[in-house]
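Input protein
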Amino acid sequence: MGGAKPIRVVIVGGGTSGWMTAAALARLLPKRVSLHLIESETIGVIGVGEATLPHIRGFVEKLGIREADFMAWTRGTFKLGIEFRNWGRIGDSYVHPFGTFGRGKGEVDFHHYWTRLRLAGAELPPFEVFSYACMLARANRFDLPSEDPDRLTSTYGYAYQFDALLFAPYLRAIAEGLGARRTEGKVVEVVRDGERGTITAVRLDNGERIEGDLFVDCSGFRSLLLGEALAEPFEDWNHWLPADRAVAMPCRTTTSVTPYTSAIAMPAGWRWRIPLQHRTGNGYVYASAFTSDDEAARALTGAVEGAPLADPRILRFRAGRRRRSWVKNCVAIGLASGFLEPLESTSIYLVQQAITALIELFPDNADSDVERDEFNRLIDLEYDRIRDFLILHYHATTRTDTDFWNYVRTMEVPDSLAEKIELFRRAGRVVKYREGVFLDASWVAVYVGQGILPQGYDPRADVPDADVLMRGMRALQGEIAAAVDRVPEHLRYIDRYCPMAAAA
């Protein structure tokens, strides 16, 4: 690039996706871009996505943010995984941990050794007792992982649960401090080049015209640039993921501030519980074909643990994605690109992955075919693989108590998921990918947690003597339990490390 003129990047829309994009570009590409973000305070933000995946830690670190300051400002808590209740059967509970099962150092993955003993008739405790992260979560305890890879206490990661309405202003201050410009206003016209069809400018409701070279659509579900102006088709996945609405309502916290998010199955979907330092976030994600808005709101109000802090709020959405996320000189990030329900806390992750891909593929020419095609390949893979993982939770149920659960249990699933399930059922194999968010332990947690148990295992698991293997498992269980007992309670750790009183 040398002394080349910076590319003018215009971001349409603020909120989490807009300000994450602005902060990252301003920090990591300061000489390549000039940034201009347009948002309107009259347009509300979704603001209920309060749970994240461990990848968010890398994003915070790259922005030069001190973790404790970030958590105090956003009133955050720590997250070791997600608890699923009543998914396989009513009464079931399992944790999808951000960590390994076992020590992660065997010749084959831990579940193959466990399966060998199970098929031999050994009496084994629940699978999750062999995960340090699961047991920390169950005990409501937290500490930072060890940096020594040989220690059991290094076998997990963590994410954050925070107030999404505080996250965007925090990032805005960072982005503006790095030179990003913000304009208040509503986009009323998208101006395009008559020959090439690229976007050349947007016009605001006050008549101001803002020109750019690369436009980033962070306009939410409306998808103002990619969906409306460029008419990029939307692939609807409602037949696989029929939940199309959510009712959200925060409440006072009257029970534990758990180091995990809860996803509790309901008659027509599922309910989230996300404990923050100052309140608990709640919501019921449901399929409108199987229950009404009023019924869903009543069900949520009756289920929350404490006094409501706001009235129930209905959100409408469609599961799916745009056929392409980068078209001509327009990149859609966040809801403007697609939506997958927050069952596995992937919304902010997808924003982060799109930003990362954009930075790594940032073009010299804003309308570049090569970078654009690779970006679309990567983002499509992320959406498609998360889609399969979410469908698995629904399809791997034995529930027959409502029409909703009967539908998802018996529906046809994508061939890509059917193949994954069959590979695991036959021999405990987990399909491995170079790209994609959920690694082997995540898939195994859901398979086993919802009753898809392998009928076979990797033959290399036969190498250890069975008695030695059983003694090793008992020893591991005891070592995990003893290590958990030495860890402070979650809220006590927060009070010492990042109390919300420190937030400005």
In short: Residues 249 and 311 are 6 Å apart (CA to CA). The mean pLDDT is 94. The two ends are 40 Å apart (CA to CA).
